[in-house]
Amino acid sequence: MFADGTFYIAPIFGYQVFITRIYAPEINSFYTTSLSILNNKEQATYELLFEELKKNASKYNKNIIVTPKILHCDFEKGLSNAVIKIFPNITIKYCVWHYKRSLEVQKNRLCYNEVERKEQIILNRKYKFNLSSKRKDNSKKYKCTEYKTLNQCPSFIILNNENQILEYDDSHNHLENKFGAAKSIVKNKIKDEISKSSIPFNVNIKRTYGEISQGMGLICPGYNSIKSQVTRSRRKQLIPDITTFDEIPNESKYYKTKRDENFMIFKNNDLIVFQSPFQAELFSKNKHIFADGTFHMAPIFSYQVFITRTYVTELNCFYTTSFSILKIIKQTTYEILFEEIKKILVNIIVLKLHQKYFIAILKKLKIKSECQEHNYVQFLEFLEYFKKTYLINFETENWNYYDNIEHITNNVSETFNKYLKKLFAKKPTFFQLLSELQKEESKYYIDYERRTAGILRNKKQKN
């Protein structure tokens, strides 16, 4: 019987899916014999699992005592103790499914991956060494398993009682395994580089791997295992996600811009505001500010991400001037938001704040009439009714267009929101969002500097 657990296919509420399999020698095939979802990996849980398997097997094997002779499993104390308790006479053999320890051979810089078993160790998943003898100083000598074959491999390894390498003879004479060892060294060096590098959160690992693996797979067939290593490494880089506003830290590397300037300017229990000095300058210099909130890219613990943008007339370009994460939407929150932005501005000028109105509703109206004049009058009547009924407190002269520039307010904000939404496959975590906002700020800073320096041409006005 073979037993092992996997975490990758476990439901979000479960710890792992535990699978048992058997080998049928008469047909030389493996078959799955049970699937279990575990909430933890305590010994009592394993005991209950195997007890139920034993009871169920007895139903279909009447008058036969169900006792597997050999269990092949991972080296896990709770699992081993549970199996021995349920099946006292069973023999356990630990399998080489996961590395348990990594040591480095100083002699030839070979990465030595050792798996604990009673009388055998495995080197690089290729070289197997059986225990040959024990010495008076408690050290152990292991000989390559090929020494009993026609190869009569002379290689051996000596470990002390702490499994540190005292001596290693790397004179293997079976070349197919020699290639395996070289391949293992290459793979481990690639893994080391992955662990040292910083992988961007918005990189699609599957797509990137697909582009590389075709060529790399021909050079090094063992490269296939790097794909999962890249994914695991990127997950380790992520700071543990936060679930409430109260957990937002007071300090973070994402609170600075790429130029090491302050990015986060305010934080309380309902609001956190991000604005760099560059964005504050744009906010103060230009009279038109566009404001809108998006729900799609807001972290799960917040209500929306509120974004302000400005239009730079001389460059004919739009630039983002602030990002804010709001826990709830209420007037006092917005008041605090703009008050904090106002505090850091040197020269405040009067701003026209353009908000989204109901242009989308008006576009969907289909007023059909044979007489164009009647159609026009009917539309004016509708506008008058709409204004008196729904827009009592709004200045309708500021609708849709400003300064004869044909940029609809709704489009200015929504287009940018849709762009940000595409950066994430689903709702981002707090730190994933900040990482992208930090990059966006840097990108617009570079764009602005290059345009004002004449390196990039300014966008032309539409006639």
Automatic annotation (TrEMBL):
Keyword Zinc among record annotations: yes
Protein name from the UniProt record: MULE transposase domain-containing protein
Q: Which UniProt keywords apply?
A: Metal-binding, Zinc, Zinc-finger
Taken from the record, one Pfam family name reads MULE
- Ranges for the MULE transposase domain? 22-99
Q: Does the keyword Zinc-finger apply?
A: yes
Q: Which GO terms describe its molecular function?
A: zinc ion binding
Q: Where is the FLYWCH-type domain?
A: 119-174
Which InterPro entries does the entry mention? MULE_transposase_dom (IPR018289), Znf_FLYWCH (IPR007588)
